[in-house]
């Protein structure tokens, strides 16, 4: 007889493990939850290759709410997780710079953020000059800074914490790939694994990150999520840059280069323009060093003259779980194949939104609807309806 599970989750990184963790709460420890992960080292997962940063500076209330739960989770870790709770969180804020043309957007975003309770302040250039004397302010008309609730952490520790907690509470992890999904009309009946196992399930969750579109296709479902390459460069600066937060140089207009401290080094990167951005092969992790030399370094050295002497230490490539429709999450049940649940397409802001997304998916499965946070704006149904979630702060 086929092995049966209440819920099978494809992918065990931040989305899969958050979902499993919250499911054990919502369904109870007796629930049979199987997380199928093809690479238990997670060495190519977006989660572990990310910049591991969290912000409240979004333009849509739902994205702010998703990330605010991430912060609540990080702050509230101590009681439940004991010694594992320290995930190296540096609450040092994001500083987003805007040119004169970007001021209306930055100001409008700030109004949405503060209405959601985010602790973001607007800073004029004279105050920026006082606080950050090492920064050149040419072309900067205004900035937004997250006084609290923003910063960065250790991605491996974050994942490890949720994975261990999900396991401790009864979820099972299998080392295999989901290679087939069986459907009987509008119901998913089970999955085939790369080790040859055929298993049945009541509910299937797609948490396969950049491969989520391919996994959905196994069930004959269209999901516009694909891998898009992004690079992270680790650099060393001889001079100190005291109090450097996560600096976003003009997301709302100009270059969009980011840089933040990482131990004794800094990490930096930039997203390509829409025209240059395209799907990459699943196994393409080759770094483009010319992007650092030609775009990132010049932009950083212009903004922070001490960075003129930056030394590149190393770099890596990771894959965004990119939603080509509107660059935002797709969460919830498929409207017809209702036991197929999405937790996908976070497009660069997923590691911080994993806990809220996992909790939402768990509530949906356990109770048939959202209880903590209404995330219906991220329904798959918006795709055929052509209804985009417009988020202006995609980094
Ligand atoms: C360079 C970079 C920087 C980023 N910076 C940030 C940031 O600062 N802040 C932020 O919030 N987000 C950031 N992100 C985005 C964030 O990392 C992702 O949105 C998030 O980690 C997605 O999590 P996931 O669990 O869906 O995907 P993943 O972490 O990719 O996990 C998916 C898992 O599914 C497994 N899998 C795939 N196919 C199958 C299959 N068929 N069967 C079984 N298992 C399968 C994979 O092995 C993988 O472990 C960044 C991403 C990148 C690449």
How would you sum up this structure, described in words?
The chain is of the alpha/beta class. It folds into two domains: 3-49 and 155-225 and 325-385, FAD/NAD(P)-binding domain (3-Layer(bba) Sandwich), CATH 3.50.50.60; 90-148 and 227-320, 2-Layer Sandwich (D-Amino Acid Oxidase, Chain A, domain 2). It is 29% helix and 27% strand. It has eleven helices and 18 strands. The chain has helices spanning 14-27, 46-49, 61-75, 77-81, 103-115, 125-131, 155-168, 212-218, 289-303, 350-367, 382-385; strands at 3-10, 33-37, 53-54, 94-98, 120-123, 142-146, 151-152, 172-175, 178-184, 187-193, 198-206, 225-236, 246-249, 257-262, 265-269, 311-323, 330-333, 340-344. Strands 1, 2, 8, 9, 10, 11, 17 and 18 form an eight-stranded mixed β-sheet that branches. An eight-stranded mixed β-sheet has the order 5-6-4-13-14-15-12-16. The radius of gyration is 21 Å and the shape is globular. Bound molecules: flavin-adenine dinucleotide. Flavin-adenine dinucleotide binds next to helix 1, strand 2, helix 2, strand 12 and strand 16. Residues 10-16, 36-39, 42, 45-47, 49-53, 177-178, 207-211, 215, 230, 232, 318-321, 346, 348-352 line the site of flavin-adenine dinucleotide (FAD).
């Amino acid at each position: 007889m086929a092995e049966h599970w209440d819920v099978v989750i494809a992918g065990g990184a931040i989305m899969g493990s958050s979902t499993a963790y919250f499911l054990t709460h919502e369904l109870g420890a007796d629930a049979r939850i199987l997380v199928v992960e093809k690479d238990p080292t997670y060495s190519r997962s977006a989660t572990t290759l990310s910049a591991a940063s969290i912000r409240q500076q979004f333009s849509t209330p739902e994205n702010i709410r998703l990330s605010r739960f991430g912060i609540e989770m990080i702050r509230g870790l101590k009681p439940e997780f004991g010694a594992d709770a320290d995930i190296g969180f540096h609450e040092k804020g994001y500083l987003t710079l805007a040119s004169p043309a970007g001021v209306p957007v930055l100001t409008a975003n700030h109004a949405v953020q503060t209405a959601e309770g985010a602790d973001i302040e607007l800073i004029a250039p004279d105050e920026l000059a006082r606080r950050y004397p090492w920064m050149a302010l040419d072309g900067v008309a205004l900035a937004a800074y997250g006084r609290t609730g923003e910063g960065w952490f250790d991605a491996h520790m974050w994942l490890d914490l949720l994975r261990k907690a999900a396991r401790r509470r009864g979820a099972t992890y299998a080392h295999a790939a989901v290679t087939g999904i069986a459907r009987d009309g509008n119901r998913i009946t089970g999955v085939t694994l790369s080790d040859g196992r055929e298993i049945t399930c009541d509910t299937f969750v797609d948490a396969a990150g950049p491969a989520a579109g391919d996994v959905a296709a196994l069930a004959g479902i269209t999901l516009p999520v694909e891998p898009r390459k992004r690079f992270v460069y680790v650099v060393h600066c001889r001079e100190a840059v005291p109090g450097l937060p996560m600096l976003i140089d003009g997301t709302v207009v100009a270059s969009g280069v980011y840089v933040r401290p990482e131990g004794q080094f800094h990490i930096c990167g930039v997203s390509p323009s829409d025209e240059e951005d395209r799907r990459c092969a699943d196994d393409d992790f080759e770094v483009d060093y010319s992007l650092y030399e030609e775009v990132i370094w010049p932009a950083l050295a212009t903004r922070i003259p001490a960075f003129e002497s930056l030394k590149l230490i190393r770099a890596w490539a990771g894959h965004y779980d990119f939603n080509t429709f509107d660059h935002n999450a797709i969460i919830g049940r498929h409207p017809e194949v209702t036991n197929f649940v999405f937790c996908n397409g976070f497009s660069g802001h997923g590691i911080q939104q994993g806990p809220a997304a996992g909790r939402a998916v768990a509530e949906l499965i356990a109770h048939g609807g959202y209880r903590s946070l209404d995330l219906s704006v991220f329904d798959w149904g918006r795709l055929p309806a052509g209804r985009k979630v417009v988020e202006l702060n995609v980094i």
